[in-house]
Amino acid sequence: MGMARMVAKRCDCCRSMNLESSNLMFAIDYTTANLTCAEHSFDGKCLHSIDPSGGILNPYQEALTRLGRVLVEFDDDRSIQVSGFGDAKTPENAVFSFTPENPMDGCKSFNEIWQRYHDLTPTIELGEKSANLGPVIRHATAVAREVTGFHMLIILLSSHLANEHLVEAAQAIVDASKFPLCRWTNLMVLMMPRMLNLLLLVTSDYRDRDGRRSLGQYEGAG
């Protein structure tokens, strides 16, 4: 099942529960896995490589384009939190905002996300440590505590998680469920570089407090 179709299916579930006003959050992987994964895809180029002519989209640009078409109706408040993680500068237990001048305001549209990605990415040094989603989920939880309503977190990831990080991600999900104000509709982890490779549905409901069940829902599709 293709990425757009899979995401659309999840959105249909949200729509059926009248959750069109979910707050969107994105997180993007800036680890060196974007280089190693590219050895067998994207013509050997870094998955974040940007074509100056704009004629060729990298996997992240392609994902943002497709997701923009599917999720635009959920962007009713014109505030989309976007963060990066795994780069050489940001501490392992933190993320950086695409809107550092006012992180809580976020991007106002998918066009702004695209432009900020285009401007920021060439300036970012990739980090050598493996991707860790625990801090990403905890950051999203902190944001959710400040903003009422339902939330949808989408993580664009270049590689599978190491076992120790998989456990930490599951624990972060369990921890998030303990906060009554954090009402989650979806967390989706999209695997780069091929849009058909989807690591989806870490959990569909953060109120699930069974860590083993949350971990068991972390599944991959090749």
From TrEMBL:
Pfam families: Copine (PF07002). Residues 46-181 form the Copine C-terminal domain. One of its GO terms (cellular component) is nucleus. GO terms for molecular function: ubiquitin-protein transferase activity. It comes from the Eukaryota. GO terms for biological process: protein ubiquitination. InterPro entries: Copine_C, E3_ligase/Copine_domain. This is Copine C-terminal domain-containing protein. It comes from Phytophthora nicotianae P1569.
